[in-house]
Design brief:
The chain has a single domain, classed as Up-down Bundle (Glycerol uptake facilitator protein), CATH 1.20.1080. Helix content is 63%, strand content 0%. The protein contains eight helices and no strands.
């Protein structure tokens, strides 16, 4: 079998993150634009389920090549708290950003007509409130601001990213329930579903800096307004998950790893 190189892993991360954003932002666009059902079709559950399966498919496709981090928070967490080489951290994050940008481009190509007709609304990234307004983006194409503060949204991202890391670590922990490669992607996907359904309201649950920042940049380039107003775009969806990744590893080790048996 051919030994994997960093180039192979880079490609795997690009492709895996591309799939994640293609299907994740794709479900947001599909539900938000709702060309056949109009505004009443909006359903948070549909979006949460769509993102969960986006993760599952992305992980199944790319795990054998790169380990399917598809998230800088995961990469940083594994570098700080596991044995992932630090020399691979920047290439992995760069690959994730490229893949996320290309995924947003693909969503744009699929939904271009509807996006243009709606005034190029924000289907790219998360934001305060994590939900659309009563009529989605309204006449001016603006997302709902919601009533959650920057601090509250940051707390939601911190806890949500930690929960994500717990699911990721448990999925490959042979001393735990031993899901490993066969069912591990489902645990990770269902973890994302649980975060979305239970913790996603205040911030829209980025829990992935590349998932939010790269599509946000793409959205700016195609004319979506307000994506970089203030500092919100930087703190809850980008910096907080990056910090929370290592915290998730440390807490998993403190509360789980140290209390497991020796295994096989």
């Amino acid at each position: 079998m051919k030994e994997k190189s960093l180039k192979n892993e880079f490609i795997g991360e690009v492709f895996g993150t591309f799939i994640l954003i293609l299907l994740g932002d794709g479900v947001v666009a599909n539900v938000g634009l709702a060309p056949r059902l109009a505004a009443p079709a909006y359903n948070w559950n549909t979006i949460a389920i769509g993102w969960a399966f986006a993760v599952i498919i992305a992980v199944y496709v790319s795990a054998g090549v790169s380990g399917a981090h598809i998230n800088p928070a995961v990469t940083l967490g594994l570098a700080v708290g596991r044995d992932f080489p630090w020399k691979k951290v920047f290439p992995y994050i760069a690959a994730q950003m490229i893949g996320a940008f290309l995924g947003a481009l693909a969503v744009y190509l699929v939904y271009r007509d509807g996006l243009v007709a709606a005034g190029m609304p924000n289907v790219w990234s998360t934001g305060p409130g994590g939900v659309f307004g009563a009529s989605f983006w309204g006449g001016e194409g603006a997302a709902s601001v919601g009533s959650y503060s920057l601090v509250t949204a940051s707390i939601a991202e911190l806890i949500g990213t930690c929960v994500l890391m717990w699911g990721v670590l448990a999925s490959g922990d042979s001393k735990n329930t031993g899901l490993l490669h066969n069912l591990g992607p489902f645990l990770v996907g269902f973890t994302v579903l649980a975060v979305g359904l239970s913790l996603g309201g205040p911030s829209g649950y980025s829990i992935n800096p590349a998932r939010d920042l790269a599509p946000r940049i793409f959205g700016l380039l195609v004319g979506t307004k307000g994506l970089f107003d203030g500092l919100y775009w930087l703190i809850p969806p980008v910096l907080i998950p990056a910090i929370a990744g290592p915290i998730g590893v440390w807490t998993y080790d403190a509360f789980v790893t140290k209390n497991l048996g020796s295994g096989e």
